[in-house]
Amino acid sequence: MYRYTKNPILTRTDIPPIPPELVDATSVFNPGAIKDEVIYRLMLRVQSRSRETFLVMAKSSDGVNFTVENQVVNFKGIEKVKQKIYHIYDARITKLEGRFYIMFAMDMDDGCQLGLGVTDNFKDFDFLGITSNEDIRNGVLFPEKINGKYYRMDRPNKARHSGGPTSGSSICLSESDDMLTWKYVSTLISGRFHYWDEFIGSGPPPVKTRKGWLHVYHGVAGHFGSSNIYQGGVLLLDLNDPSIVLGRSRCNILEPREIWELAGQVPNVTFPSGMVVEEYDAEGFVVDDSEVKIYYGAADTSVGLLITSIAELTTAAMEGNIP
Ligand code: BMA
Question: Would residue 322 count as lying in a domain?
Answer without folding.
Answer: no
